[in-house]
Amino acid sequence: MIRVLxxxxxxxxxxxxxxxxxxxxxxxxxxxxxxxxxxxxALDAHPVDVxxxxxxxxxxNGIVATHHVRARPNPPEVIVLTTFDTDDxxxxxxxxxxxxxxxxxxxxxxxxxxxxxxxxxxPILSPHITRRLMDRxxxxxxxxxxxxxxLANLSPxxxxxxxxxxxxxxxxxxxxxxxxxxxxxxxxxxxxxxKLDLGNRTQIALLAHDAGLC
Length: 214
Fold this sequence. Notes:
CATH architecture of the largest domain: 3-Layer(aba) Sandwich
Number of domains: 2
Number of helices: 11
Oligomer: single chain
Shape: globular
Distance between the termini: 36 Å
Largest sheet: 5 strands, parallel
Order of helices and strands: EHEHEHEHEHHHHHHH
Strand order of the largest sheet: 2-1-3-4-5
């Protein structure tokens, strides 16, 4: 059972998501929160696998809340909820550790698929949407240099995997490109996360983007 926490200051949105997700076998909404300030209490009270996190909330916004969630021991994954075209903070939320994002008007099947994939350790990185997000972020010379220096800690093969992750490729696609097995790709990703002290694949992708490699 995938346990979900829904965080949104709109009660209608929370109710709609809860009714929709609870209608799918294998997913259970175990808690709701109306603001980021309430998230720690909810996580203390309920084991959670995936958090659906709104960005704009009155007290503690989704960016700060996501950072706090991902800083917890054995943290749940976070999917950011956004209207996208009007919200410029999504990239900051991804840098804070979110595994991906969803449009609030996404189809129920897309939301369910996102929850299932993220719970299984796969980020929600639509190449088209993610590229638009990344292109909206101006990368400074300092950020570029820092990213290049950080990636220099990787082996040549790990570097190739990091770039492929940044291009939005799946483990299967990376394995086919590098002629290695999917478990080997997963092992490389795990080592990259450990070496670079990153929380998830999304942050690998953003680092590769900052370094100008994608």
